[in-house]
Prior knowledge:
Blueprint: E1 14-16, E2 23-25, H1 44-48, H2 64-78, H3 93-105, E3 116-120, H4 121-124, H5 146-149, E4 171-175, E5 180-184, E6 191-199, E7 202-207, H6 212-222, H7 224-229, H8 243-248, E8 254-258, E9 263-266, E10 271-276, E11 280-287, H9 293-305, H10 314-318
Antiparallel strand pairs: 1-2, 3-4, 4-11, 5-10, 6-9, 6-11, 7-8, 7-10
Amino acid sequence: LCEICHQASDEESMLLCDECDRGFHLYCLEPPLKSIPKSDWYCMDCLRSSGGDYGFEDGKERSLPNFQKIANGFKQKWFHELADEKGHVHVAEDQIEKEFWRLIESPYDDVSVEYGADLHSSRHGSGFPTPERQPLDPYANCGWNLNNVSILPKSLLTYVRNDVSGMMQPWLYVGMVFSTFCWHTEDHFTYSINYNHWGDTKTWYGIPSSDADKFEALMRTSTPELFEENPDLLFHLTTLMSPAHLQRHKVKTVYCHQRAGEFVMTFPRAYHAGFNQGFNFAEAVNLALHDWLPYGRQCVQQYATFSKQPVFSHAELLL
């Protein structure tokens, strides 16, 4: 029995929800589907009531060569229709971007990829030289070396007593196609700087701090049921909304393609999101300049509103 037209006819066009097992005719859906999806499919009621059943899960520990094999194999298989006569896949950046947002905005596609995110450089090593490991390398003491950014003379993070991993020590990111970082601001609304060491492009989207309030309001009005269950949802790094949708609602949005050997910097309280276009390796760290101070105070107040523990003491930094 179709839950929309309440007819039991035309069983060949009946699609069952993989969560609740209720049936729907392909042509009764909005928008209608032309065929049965190859992957799992969930009805809108189940999607709306998913609560915390979305986001990221811890995966297996992999070696870099093993992850590379998985990443390249997935991309080759996904875009196999674009392969040349030798079987090599060459996909333009705009084609991958278009496919990414098609998947994000489709309620009928379910895709899982892996992302080596938030890996501690203190454990796995940095892509930049360090004075301890390479004392003769001229870049070991360079200001653009992310191991040195947080301790530069004008960085206020030098006054933070605790050595905060991810903020003061760089974190590493090993991506594959469609691996995603959702809309978020940095901890304490600090600056961030990201370097793509090698590999495929990383695509970024950004919203200036001047439109942060407008963005947050739009997110809450667009998915009120999610925010009712999780008022601090924007801290979870699990929400995406397309730049096209944001621009239609007058939220300023910019983008860039970060290729190998390029830096991307985000500014205080600038929401940003993005995805990787293939196998790549990046590194990121935070910094705080004097113009960050009012943003930092505002962030601590927001943390208090949602009972979120700060990463470091803002008051101690000022003292």
